[in-house]
Design a protein that fits this description.
The complex is a heterodimer of chains A (337) and B (314). Chain A is α/β, with parallel strands linked by helices and 337 residues long. Chain A has helices at 2-11, 55-63, 90-96, 108-111, 118-129, 134-147, 153-156, 166-178, 196-213, 224-230, 248-253, 258-265, 329-336, and strands spanning 15-24, 37-39, 44-48, 71-80, 83-84, 101-104, 184-188, 216-221, 233-238, 241-247, 313-315, 321-323. In chain B, α5 (87-122) crosses α8, α8 packs across α10 (223-253) and α12 (266-275) packs antiparallel against α13. The N and C termini of chain B lie close together (8 Å). The chains are: A alpha/beta (337), B mainly alpha (314).
């Protein structure tokens, strides 16, 4: 079922980010450089990477939600629903937001306005994009609360965020995000702040709703367990670049970029002998210390002089792309030997 | 909500008792004996003794205090030593004048300070923000008496637009009453507007970076609605609290402005009473001001609870 959807999707991506670069403040170095990924209808793309690698920034940029004046976009070549998607057109971006593209966030505790009833907050999302009466919008809000599994939705409409648990609040956020049947949902670490049992409930909920509506989903996470569970496609992000992307299968079974290999081998395993968890040594470079060529070169065990030059994009077929001088793996092992 | 107000009132009781003790002690501690002042030039011992007996000065001090409190509770704040009018009556005459002045000043301050604060927060770091801040700083730094005198010179003397001084009761001629009080209200209101603007700005700046404002934007709401509904509603709490406290201060603190524009209000009553050692009046005024302050505090707390759904239900 899922693979069928993926095949349909691969013909015409829903959101196609071909190039996205942006910098913060007066900095000459772009924080995000040449970010590229795409997501199709019904497809789940997971963007993984460490904290501060630019996962959230890239999606906030697409939503037009980066703080005004703080970030400047240097390159953007994006299309959405086969139309050019202009990050400078603030009016168009606002019309997309909450209508075709919705977003949920990491912090369910603080993402709802404490001063308003949750019912009104959901209904507001409906009235913002549709010519409906308040009663119709409320009807829709009740329906959405029911769909995200909130018991006695009618009564809950009049509750304030502080009366709900974290998991319930994230459900409300999802109800709000999906109220207008968006074509794309961007979920920015939606389960990070929740405890484990609630995490899987929320993930299941997102998956169920996705199957019902056929929307595409971008899931931003640093949790490879989440990725293994839900991803169709994976984009691995390091220091503002997508170092490797491809199908979930390719990334987990045949990782090519040294960073991806490091990430996957740092995952604890349930079977096999107990070993010390492996780590990727070093830390992510800051904008000031960003290397000119390959951004991973400062931590890469295979780094050579050539890594001071911008690495090439290598294509391994079926959308599996790696940003590395030494890919594929065999070649790299030979050279470093 | 009612139980909250009742609880809050109970807390106010010890405060009021402390204030009453302080106010009573004022009379005992300050130099100068009102009886001697009343006895006149000759200071006839018999007269003095008679007056002491009459005003209960021979009783032990705690007894005097209890008597005074008992009287105050029945609305008897004593009699002005100077005009022989009941203190309560004097206060009742002057208080409405000051309340009108304070209300007008507050309306001015709110209608200028809050929009300016919002605007300067949205336009942070731009020319508009700098201009608003410079104007606010000037509003805070310019002394009331100077501003008042300049306004009288310009508006009343040179342009002859508004009367320089005086007072017309509101119920007599509302329009004229407001006209006369525009200038003093403006003078009083400028510093308040500046204070409110600064607080609104910082409250808005905090709220504008919050996650729920980002959510409101993610819903695709128009920026206007994001700011005026989602952000401002949450910034309102400190602003309302501050406004209530400022209003309380205004009632006690309009002394200088009332002097300049010869508004026959509370401030003028205080000054006259202090200069004439009219202790009963001073006591009465301090007591009424303190109680007024406590009431405004209570209102601020009530507003705080009303604005916070989190506190409302408890």
């Amino acid at each position: 079922m899922v693979s069928k959807l993926v095949q349909n999707a691969s013909s015409a991506p829903l959101l196609d980010v071909r190039r996205l670069s942006l910098g913060f403040g007066d900095s000459q170095t772009d924080l995000l450089k040449g970010v590229r990924y795409s997501v199709g209808r019904g497809e789940t793309l997971c963007i993984v990477g460490e904290s501060g690698c630019g996962k959230s920034v890239s999606s906030l940029a697409i939503m037009g939600l980066l703080p005004k004046g703080a970030a400047h976009i240097t390159e953007a070549d994006i299309s959405f629903l086969d139309e050019p998607y202009d990050l400078d057109d603030t009016v168009a971006l606002r019309r997309h937001r909450g209508a075709d593209i919705a977003m949920i966030f990491q912090e369910p505790m603080s993402s709802l306005n404490p001063a308003f009833k949750i019912g009104d907050q959901i209904a507001e999302a409906v009235t913002a994009h549709n010519d409906v009466t308040d009663a119709q919008a409320r009807e829709r809000a009740i329906e959405m609360l029911d769909r995200v599994g909130i018991p006695s939705p009618k009564a809950r409409m009049n509750e304030y965020p502080h009366q709900l648990s974290g998991g319930m609040r994230q459900r409300v956020m999802i109800a709000m995000a999906l109220a207008n049947d968006p074509k794309l949902l961007i979920a920015d670490e939606p389960t990070t702040a929740l405890d484990v049992t609630i995490q899987s409930q929320i993930l299941d909920l997102i998956r169920t709703l996705q199957a019902e509506t056929g929307m595409g989903t971008i899931m931003i996470t640093h949790d490879l367990g989440v990725v293994a569970e839900i991803a169709d496609k994976v984009a691995v992000m390091y220091a503002g670049t997508i170092v490797e992307s491809g199908s979930a299968e390719a990334i987990f079974n045949d990782p090519q970029h040294p960073y991806t290999i490091g990430l996957i081998s740092s995952m604890p395993k349930l079977s096999g002998p107990r070993e010390r968890l492996s780590t990727v040594p070093g830390t992510v470079p800051t904008v000031q210390t960003m290397p000119a060529g390959c951004r991973f070169s400062t931590r890469c065990p295979f780094a050579q002089d050539i890594c001071n030059e911008t690495p090439p994009q290598r294509d391994f077929g079926a959308g599996h792309e790696v940003l590395c001088h030494f890919a594929p793996l065999d070649l790299r092992l030979e050279r470093s030997a | 909500m009612l139980s909250f107000i009742l609880r809050r009132l109970l807390v106010a009781i010890p405060t009021i008792i402390l204030i009453s003790i302080f106010v009573f002690a004022l009379q005992k501690l300050l130099p100068g004996d009102p009886i001697l002042a009343m006895a006149g030039e000759e200071r006839d011992p018999e007269t003095i003794a008679f007056l002491r007996e009459k005003y209960g000065m021979n009783d032990p001090i705690p007894v005097q205090y209890l008597k005074w409190v008992g009287n105050a509770l029945t609305g008897d704040l004593g009699i002005s030593l100077r005009t022989n009018q009941p203190v309560l009556e004097l206060i009742g005459e002057k208080l409405p004048v000051t309340i009108q002045l304070a209300t007008m000043a507050m309306i001015f301050a709110i209608s200028i300070g809050i929009p300016a604060g919002i605007l300067s927060a949205i336009k942070k770091g731009t020319a508009i923000d700098y201009v608003a801040n410079v104007v606010a700083l000037s509003g805070l730094s310019i002394p009331n008496f100077w501003l008042g005198i300049m306004l009288i010179l310009l508006v009343s003397v040179k342009w002859q637009l508004l009367p320089a001084s005086g007072y017309v009761p509101f119920d007599e001629d509302p329009l004229r009453s407001i006209q006369v009080m525009i200038m003093p209200a403006f003078v009083l209101g400028t510093a308040l507007a500046a204070t409110l603007m600064r607080h609104t700005r910082s409250a808005m700046l905090t709220v504008l970076t919050s996650d729920y404002v980002r959510t409101a934007r993610a819903k695709g709401l128009k920026e206007r609605r994001v700011i005026l509904k989602h952000a401002f509603r949450n910034a309102l709490t400190p602003i309302v609290t501050l406004s209530a406290l400022l209003f309380g201060e205004l009632i006690a603190g309009a002394v200088l402005t009332e002097q300049i524009f010869t508004v026959p209000g509370f401030g003028k009553l205080v000054v006259d009473a202090v200069f004439n050692r009219d202790y009963a009046v001073v006591q009465g005024i301090v007591l009424v001001t303190a109680v007024g302050f406590i009431v405004m505090n209570l209102l601020a707390d009530v507003a705080y609870v009303l604005l916070n759904p989190r506190l409302r239900k408890q």
